[in-house]
Amino acid sequence: MSDEHKTQDELEVVTPRTRSWIRGGFGCGIAAIISVIWIIGISLIADYYMSMYQHSFGWQSGVDQFGFSLIVCLVAWFLIDRQKTFREAGLVNPLSIVPGWILGTAFGMAGACVAIMVISLSGSATLDTRPPVFYDYGGSGLEVLFIFFLFSGSEEFFSRGLLYPLLRRYVGLVWSVLLSSLVFSLLHLGNNAFGILPAIDIFFAGVLLALLREYTGSLWLAWGAHLGWNFGLAAAGLPVSGYTFQIEFIKYRISTQGPNIITGGEFGPEGGLSGIFANIIMVAVVIILIILKKRNCTITA
To answer: pTM for the full model?
Structure first.
């Protein structure tokens, strides 16, 4: 075989791989640019409300962050693929919105209960009737639920409505789940008491939510799970990602006194083995559902 033929054969082998790497790098570059824009915008909104009201958890800040995230998500997809803007963003199947929210919220709260159960079984939890000495936001149950609805929606528009499906286009399922989950974890760098265990836990939470998006093709179930997890922890009086909430009508709360490696300490269960265990259990459940769904589709076909 001549050198010319060898070179041609080598190019035929290398070119698809090279193109794949170039395509993946291009997609990651776009994702990085959009991520920087989103982070800057959200930070400016949070800083504004922090300077005006000494906190950034009010519904006004939530509405602004929610609206900004939705606009960034839709505008980005319109520029990338205007014919599939809402589909790629996961804003599809209007009839499944409420059922998706309800089922997702129930699933997320069940996960929170698993984390609380682990803390209780370790002997690290006691019931306390005293309100927390300090909390980041307080209000009625509906107010706190609405706050979590807005903030979880804002994060879902960006992380699972834009970042995950964008990466999915360029680097495939596995890498898009891992990379979007890594970014989701890093978004919490500025949270109180953030550290290695919280980073690992929130990474697993990102994997869970990305798989829920993959399973349904829409945002509703993932959004509901995110909301349910946060509200479930807050309703128990536990910190949520480093922040504490006081729900007025709840007279009892769980006070943790055990090792931080289990309870998560000031970060809450998401910063300890209890939260990691709960997230791994939920990830396993969703993986089983995805496998069963694909198997049923294969049998039907």
So the answer is: 0.90
